[in-house]
Structure formats: C-alpha cells, structure tokens
Amino acid sequence: MNLPSSAQPSTRIGDVMRLIRGRIAARSLTPGEKLPSIRALAASMQLSTSTVVEAYERLGAEGVICSRPGSGFFVAGPLAPLSMAEIGPRLDRAVDPFWVSRQSLQADDAMLKPGCGWLPPDWLPQASLRRGMRQLARAEESTLADYGTPLGLAPLRQLLARRMAERGVEASADQIVLTDSGTHAIDLVCRFLIEPGDTVLVDDPCYFNFLAVLRAHRARIVGVPMTPSGPDLVHFERAIAEHAPRLYITNAAIHNPTGASLSPVTAHRVLKLAEAADLTIVEDEVFADLEPVVAPRLAAFDGLQRVVQVGSFSKTLSAAARVGHVALRQDWVEGLVDLKIATSFGSSQLSSSLVLQVLRDGSYRKHVEGLRLRLARAAVEVGGRLKALGIRPWLEPQAGIFLWCQLPDGADAAALSQAALAQGLVLAPGNVFSPTQSAPDFMRFNVAQSQDERLFAFLRQALGRRTR
Amino acid sequence: MNLPSSAQPSTRIGDVMRLIRGRIAARSLTPGEKLPSIRALAASMQLSTSTVVEAYERLGAEGVICSRPGSGFFVAGPLAPLSMAEIGPRLDRAVDPFWVSRQSLQADDAMLKPGCGWLPPDWLPQASLRRGMRQLARAEESTLADYGTPLGLAPLRQLLARRMAERGVEASADQIVLTDSGTHAIDLVCRFLIEPGDTVLVDDPCYFNFLAVLRAHRARIVGVPMTPSGPDLVHFERAIAEHAPRLYITNAAIHNPTGASLSPVTAHRVLKLAEAADLTIVEDEVFADLEPVVAPRLAAFDGLQRVVQVGSFSKTLSAAARVGHVALRQDWVEGLVDLKIATSFGSSQLSSSLVLQVLRDGSYRKHVEGLRLRLARAAVEVGGRLKALGIRPWLEPQAGIFLWCQLPDGADAAALSQAALAQGLVLAPGNVFSPTQSAPDFMRFNVAQSQDERLFAFLRQALGRRTR
C-alpha cells in the first residue's frame, strides 16, 4: 500500500538512499548482496514504491547498486563483478571472462566443447598415468600422507630446471616453486607483486582467465593489441608511457587464443622497454610442450631478472593432477613461498609425485610428439572446414590447440555462443578474450574438441540463416 | 671516498630521502627489496657515507624502510611483512607466524617436530590410501586427466553433506565447495568477504596460519582471549563494539592450540553478538574427526546464515592429497566459485577421488576410532612427562593432538625454540599463536610427535640449566 507522505518527494528519496548507503557502509549489505525488494522497503518505510524505485535508480546511476532484470537490485562495489551469485540460470549470464570457464567446466559428457581450453582426456597419456598411480600406491609412507616441503617436491623442481635449460632459461631448482596449478602460480605472483589499483598490461586478445585473476586482485587492466609475432610494440610503448604498469602478463611459446609466437626482435624490444620502465613480466608457458620448435622466451633473454615464468601440466599430461610451477628471481623466492604457505600451506605431494613419474616415464616424449602431430592434422582439417563456412583463421599457427577465427560478415560471436549453448555446444566468443571488447566477431576453436559433425552443422545453419 | 659538499647536510640528507622515496613511488624499489648499499649510494651521489646513513635512519624511523642487521636496508610497506626473502639462514629468522610452518615443513627426517601441527605419516591410514591409489589407477579416463566441475567432485560433496548433518549442520551438496586445502578454503572466504583494512577477530591464542593468511589479506587483526569453553564473551563483545569487525575466524570442535571446546552457552552468546553486529563467522573444523563427542557447532545453531564452515582431511586421512572444503550460504556459492576459478581454476579430481575412496572404505571409521584412542593415551603420557618437568598444560583437552602448556618460572619459549632448533628439534613457541604476543612462556606440544626421549632430555637440560 502506498501511503501519502507530507515530506518532499526528493527528501523521501534521499532517505531511502541514505538508508541503503548506510547499510553498505556498515556492511549489513555487502558487495553482490541483494537489496530489499522495492515493495518490501516501501512498506517498511511507509513510502510509495515509486519513491523507492527512484532512489534505487539514482543509486544505480551513481554505481552504488546495480539492477539485474528479473532478479532485483544488488550492491555494486569492488567485489561485485566477481560476486555474480544471484544471476541465476546459466543462459542468462552475460558473456564475461568466466563464461567459457564455467560452461566448459560444468558441461556434461553429452555436450561438445569446441570453446574449451584443454584436450579431451583420451588425448592424454592414460596408460602412463595409470602406471604412475600404481607406482604411487607403493610409494613411501610420507609421500602418501605428509605435507610437502615449502618449495615442493625437489626431484620435480630439478627436472623442471633441466627442461627450462633446454628452452634457454637458466634457473636453479631453488628458484622454482611448485603450486597447485598454473592459475595458482599466476595468482601467487600477482599477490606478491601487485597492489589493488596497480595497472597490468595484457595482450588483446588474451587468455580470459588472466582478466578474471586480475579482477580478483583489483588491478587496472590495459590491453595491448597482439600481432602474429608478439605484442604491438608501438602500443606497448605507449601503454607503458601512459599507464606506468607494474606488470605485463603474457604467454610464452604458443599464444592463447591467437596461436602467435614471439619473434626474437619483438622479445628483445619488449624487454628493453620493460627494463626502461622497470616493468615485471609474467610469462605463462602452459602450452610449451606442444611447440615443435622452441620460440624465444623472455625469461631466456632476461635471465629471470624481471621475468617470472609460470607453467603447468594440465594441457599435455593431466588437468586432474593440479600441479603448476613458477620460476623467479632467487631473492623473491622466500617471499612468494611465505604467501604460498599463508594461503594454501603446501602443494600436493601426491600430484607432484604422479607428474614426476609420468615425466620420467620413457613414453612421455613420444606421447608429446604424437600429440603435436595429431594436433597439426586436426588444425588442418578443422581449419579447412571452418574456411568452407567463411570462418577465417587470423593466423595459421605453427602449433597448439587453438584457431583464432573471424566470423563472416561481422556475425556476433556472443549471440552465436548463446544459441550454441542451447544446442549443447560450448563455444568461446571473441570478446571474453578481449579487455577492450574489440573482438565481437571472433571465436576461438579448440581443434581437438572440434571434431564432431554437430559443430559444423550448427555453424552452417546459424551463419547461413543469418546471411540469408 | 667521502667527498666534501657545499650544500647543507640536512639538504643532502633530504636529497637521499627524496631519491629513495621517489624510487619506491615509481616502484623501481618494491616492498621487501634491498636498498642500494650505503657505500654504493654515497659514491654514486658523491656524498659522505654518514649522510646516507642518516637518511636511511630517518627513512627507517618513518617506517619507509627497515634494517636487518648484517643484511642491509630493505623497503618496508604493505607487503613487507610477508616478503622476508633476504633474511637469510633460518636460525636468524624472527619467531613470526611463519616460523613453525617453515621449520616443520622443511625439517628433514632426522629432525623431531613436537611443534608441528600434524600426525606422523604412519599414524594415517596407509593401507587404505594404497588401496585407494590402486583403485584410482583403474578409474575412468576423465578422472585421471580432466578438470573437475566448478564446485568439485559431486559424490564427495554429497558425502560431506551427510557428515555435516551428523554434526547437526544442515547443508546441501550444492552449498559445499571443494578447495585445494583447508587453508585455501579460508583464503577464498577471506577473498570473498573482506577488503584490505577490514578488521578480523581471532582467538588469542589461535592457529598461527590464521594470522599469516589475514596478513596476506592486509586485514587488521584483533585477538579475543580464549577460555576453556570458547572466546571470552566480555572481550568478544567489547572487541565488536570497539573495532566493528567484519569476520571472526575460529576453530570448531577442538581448538588449536588450546584444545578448548565451545560450550553451548558460549556458542549461543557468540552467535547473538554476531547477529547484532552483522558479523560473519568462519568456523574451521579441521580436527573434527578426532572428537569422540561432538561439541556444538556455530554453523549448526546458525544454519549457515552467517557462519561459513571450512575443513580438510589433512589431519586424519592425508596431508599429501590437499583437499579442503567450505560450506556456506547458497547465495554466496557462485561468487566464491568464480573466485576459485579465477585463482586456481579447479580442484583436483585425483585428490578428491582418493579422499572419497578412503572415506568410503569401511576401514576409515575404525581408523579414526583407533586414532582417538592412541592420541588419548599419548596425551596422558606426554602430559605426565611434561608436568614432571614443571611444564603445565593450560587444559586437559578432551581430544585432539595438542597440549597447550605453560613453561616453568616464566621461561622464554622463543629462546627455548631457537636453542631446540640447533639441536634438531622443531618446537612451537607460544607467541607465534598470539596476536597480542601475550604467550611468551607458553608452548604447544603435539602429543603424537613428542614421543622421542631426545625431546624430554633437551627440555630437562634447557629448563634445568635456566633455573640453576
């Protein structure tokens, strides 16, 4: 019931705004939390619903709260972009950096995932993993039950140091810290090096979870356009001058999503610019094992002075094991390890022992070589089928699992992805990779997950209908 | 060489201070980083070393930098307490919240660890773990190689929901999120609920890693004295009134380090105070399986409205597997899972499958019952031997692995721990547990790790020498 009020409408609107602001300040309403419904608040304050509507709308214009159609009003704030709890059914969720992760991770076996970022399980070294598990069943008591050492399993760190040396990066095992995943490695490095509000450069497009983890750290994100040989140097230099970034996060080896590889000239120039601006670089080489020819590593040129290298085994060995690693300056190791202990206490002895077993297994190199070949064939085949539909790869990548493609006639990749989801297909629309939202007609295809006829039938129909 | 200068000494000192401040502002010097040596800076600026010394000392007095005897000067700042990279040999490191973790985790097999927080590996269900590993070696391909679902392995979450129900906490499996450890669970909850500068209440004493993780989140920490039946209610109420805390982090079941159990009266009163102040409570029940009789759970009284419950399997099943869990309000789940994906992408399918196998194994309940008995016996025996040395338990705990003890005649537990380390013994001095540093003569003993004669010989000698 809307009661008449003797006060000025603007005063009454102000009362509602003050009430909500006060609750947010006192944290009885926290970021992401739903506000009282308009009807309920109007009743409790003996005001008309239109007064509450107006107050909510003004608070919305100020960015204090935000509305979600059909769901109500929610507290905005620093954490709000991450607290999307109430958004409801997955089809309603905006295409944000989490969209592809969530859809891919929660897809059931009946769904196709051409948009996901990993290989199907039967492309991974199953026999070797099973052998590793059987060996682990006979391991020492402490391997099965104890916490690991602060840096993580020493023989695995030694093996990683040898692998890094093969790629031109000199690091001792004491400079390598094991983590629970490559993502966890990046998160720890961000925790160690950046403060809320710091600016971080990323490639545009870049791996969408870089955007998600940086948002979790409340970093300001600045995108630098990507070229087939690395970041665009003119933009890179300008971004440094304009934004004084603290960090630049990029891929080494095969760039996600574009498949680009850093050229030696670009690598050298990026490092020179970083040195002049005292910029730290995080180089993620999660796809390194898929390279047939080793591309330049910033960490190799730099000697791990201002470059931190991270990686994991999720793409070529197992994503179920959760083992990542970070290699960094010796004098940063202890600080990073303190943060690791404070926030996760230690890395898994079991998982790292399993990874060590598989890497030591004579069959791993052969597995990886087979994988490269199989992926190269799949890239040719999938690329050909996409081109036949007018979907053009931006680059013919030298290796890896992705084709970064432009849709014909400016088709909207986000709308296409929403339509695909309704038909059991998880796609990866371009703008989830783009901090500037400048890839609306791009899409990333995982060639290992794009082998089912249903994908092409869907694309043919959806794009054909569109242009008809 | 110290060159004469025509400028005023105070101006020259100011120049040095401005230079260092400028570098810190520009981040060419970052928190924890070593400053140029006095000699080098004096030479490069053509100043006397005494000018630089004076400038450094003034910056030190301002808290901008800090000195570490024998190592030089380092940038202070928000991250500095966590970036202790350069502190050098472990014996030199101050007794801080990381001390016991680091010493315990990096101790080799020759060392004794009466101060550590976990059971020896041969106290854990080795046969069942080995059986579980062999079963896993025959698991589905996706279990061995794929990412898990965003919330984590569903059957394990269902089993956890049933276990929580046995302890009076009603939660659906959809309110339970798996994490990489109990510590990771607390870290995620902090990320979700607190902002830098927020105040968090902890028990005094409390588990030292609560202090470490809260420091990583830049929280203000306020301690509330502990009593044998829970936090001191007068102090708890006063702390809420004075500090308007956002969160209270405590143990459910068996309190670490004291062994206290919450009484129903205290539980009820704590919740009433929390409700009135809109305080969220994190209840860590990592030692729950060791309870013979279930103590009240705040989450049970509250129905997971303002209580978040976390736990793990590191104490009774395996610390090598790294599986933790958090149960929370349904409408907070999605936001927390977004943060989990952003910062670790997913929890380990392998580890959670192994934990599920062991929990389902008929022998687990028997294992836990045996553990309780063995710990009860060890507590009596170790308690008796400590008392004979004048070391008095603050409480005879009903269960668990710790005795929280006061040393005789105000002996300094930190000094004793440093001396013990030199003899291959990791002890846990009281002040690492105390946010107010009010337990200098207390020490936590792990009864399962205090069975070696060398411990008592050391204590006898060290305390005897002291009082002689």
TrEMBL record, chains A, B:
It comes from the Bacteria. SMART domains: HTH_GNTR. InterPro entries: Aminotransferase_I/II_large (IPR004839), HTH_trans_reg/aminotransferase (IPR051446), PyrdxlP-dep_Trfase (IPR015424), PyrdxlP-dep_Trfase_major (IPR015421), PyrdxlP-dep_Trfase_small (IPR015422), Tscrpt_reg_HTH_GntR (IPR000524), WH-like_DNA-bd_sf (IPR036388), WH_DNA-bd_sf (IPR036390). Keywords: Aminotransferase, DNA-binding, Pyridoxal phosphate, Transcription, Transcription regulation, Transferase. Pfam families: Aminotran_1_2, GntR. Residues 10-78 form the HTH gntR-type domain. GO terms for molecular function: DNA binding; DNA-binding transcription factor activity; pyridoxal phosphate binding; transaminase activity. In the C-terminal section; belongs to the class-I pyridoxal-phosphate-dependent aminotransferase family. This is PLP-dependent aminotransferase family protein. It comes from Ideonella dechloratans.
